[in-house]
Specification:
Elements lengths: L1 E7 L5 H10 L3 E3 L7 H11 L3 E5 L5 H4 L2 H10 L3 E8 L2 H11 L12 H18 L1 E4 L5 H6 L22 H8 L19
Parallel strand pairs: 1-3, 1-4, 2-3, 4-5
Length: about 200
């Protein structure tokens, strides 16, 4: 079974990505505490679900610390587990929250939005390091839906800032041709850079 664990900072596009995965045929569950991932995997296997996507975020911070053990256990059971971490810069997050007029899930009464974002980054910092980090700062919801999410097979190639070691001369040339500050651009083969 393919198991995608989707996380990231609030406002980075987790809901959009999860809906796109659902449209692509994944059995999806939003905001599931990490402690219930094993039970959900059992349930999905009993139903014969070949692909499952689960979203978890800082609201279930009490159980997120157990995620590495849960991932290891699911991989030991033979499941293909991928951890995807969606991120965006603070400016984009503030803009998105102001556009939707929704409160930040960790914001307390009177807490400024940038402070809530910083708190969430602190809670999720370690998770960004164990997952595949994708920067959605300049992506629109339509671009995020239309990018690699439609086919989870291509998620491995959708990297941002984490540049793999080149396996060939062609890989090295491609790596040199892209700035590490650029997020994933779904339909771009060539990103010109002028100085």
């Amino acid at each position: 079974m393919r198991l995608v664990l989707l996380s990231g900072v609030s406002g980075s596009g987790k809901s959009v990505a999860l809906k796109a995965l659902e449209d692509a045929g994944f059995f999806c569950v939003d905001n599931l505490p990490a402690d219930l991932i094993g039970a959900l995997a059992d349930y999905a296997m009993s139903r014969g679900e070949p692909r499952v996507a689960i979203s978890a975020d800082a609201r279930s911070r009490e159980s997120l610390g157990r995620l590495p053990d849960i991932v290891a256990k699911e991989r030991a059971r033979g499941n293909d587990v991928r951890v995807i971490f969606l991120d965006a810069n603070d400016e984009s997050l503030v803009r998105r929250f102001s556009e939707t007029r929704r409160p930040h899930p960790l914001a307390r009464d009177g807490q400024a939005l940038p402070d809530a974002i910083a708190e969430e980054r602190g809670v999720l910092a370690w998770l960004a390091e164990i997952g595949q980090r994708i920067d959605t700062s300049i992506l629109t919801p339509a671009q995020l839906r239309g990018s690699a999410w439609a086919d989870c097979e291509t998620m491995e190639s959708a990297t941002a800032r984490h540049v793999p070691t080149p396996r060939s001369a062609e890989d090295a040339i491609l790596m040199l041709g892209y700035s590490p500050e650029l997020p994933v651009l779904p339909a771009s083969c060539l990103v010109p850079k002028a100085r």
